[in-house]
Amino acid sequence: MSRLRRARSISATLAKAAIGLIAVLLGIVLVAIAVVETGWAKDRIRDLIVRQANQYLTATLSIGRLEGSLLRGLQLGEISLGRDGQTLIRIDEIAVNYSIRELFQRGVVIRRVRLTRPHVVGAKMADGRWDLGALVRRESQEQSRTGPNRPIEIQSIEVIDGRISLQDPLDFGPAHVPTDFQQLNALF
């Protein structure tokens, strides 16, 4: 009889310990989520995004602010991409909506991307290429690349009050393309 009591006592103690461990882990997860949602953590994430992006760009990216919830969607504000003191792309705000679950499934699903007042300025470089076409660094191993391991699906892209300015003429034989487009609104 005493063995049975001891076994039950051990089982009860292990059950309490397991419940306690689960409660502690849940508490740690909740604290981590709360910390990630603070302004300090969002500034660190914004800095990380800028640092990582600038490794792959021939221009310099800057992001003035990062707001929103990391669990549902983010808003990045005051975005600019410049080279040699000239701004090539300026966007007042980029809003990205997603479900955290959809980011970690087999393929990444982004529900909506909204660009508010993007302004793109393009010009030809000395070698005749457009500066916008040379924003991403080229690597010597591009031929062996396979692309992302997971597909990325963007369900909706919206442009609000966009502007495109070309500093040099864009001609295709006798056809001349306008060099300034204003109040561009689109939903893809």
Task: Give the gist of this structure.
The protein is α+β, with helices and mostly antiparallel strands and 188 residues long.
Describe the model.
With 188 residues, the chain is an alpha+beta fold. It has one domain (37-187). Helices cover 30% and strands 40% of the residues. It is elongated. The chain starts with a helix and ends with a strand.
List the helices and strands and how they pair.
Layout: H1 2-36, H2 39-56, E1 60-69, E2 73-83, E3 86-98, H3 100-103, E4 108-122, E5 152-154, E6 157-166, E7 170-172, E8 175-177, E9 180-187
Parallel strand pairs: 4-5, 4-6
Antiparallel strand pairs: 1-2, 2-3, 3-4, 6-9, 7-8
Query: How many beta-strand runs?
Result: 9
Helical percentage: 25-40%
Looking at the structure, what is the overall shape? elongated
The domain count comes to 1
Number of helices: 3
Tell me the series of helices and strands, N- to C-terminal.
HHEEEHEEEEEE
**Unreliable segments of 5+ consecutive residues:** none
What portion of residues belong to β-strands? 35-45%
Mean pLDDT: 84
Instruction: Give the biggest sheet.
Output: 7 strands, mixed
What is the CA-atom radius of gyration, in angstroms?
Answer: 25 Å
Termini, distance in Å? 73 Å
Key features?
7-stranded mixed β-sheet; two-stranded antiparallel ribbon; elongated
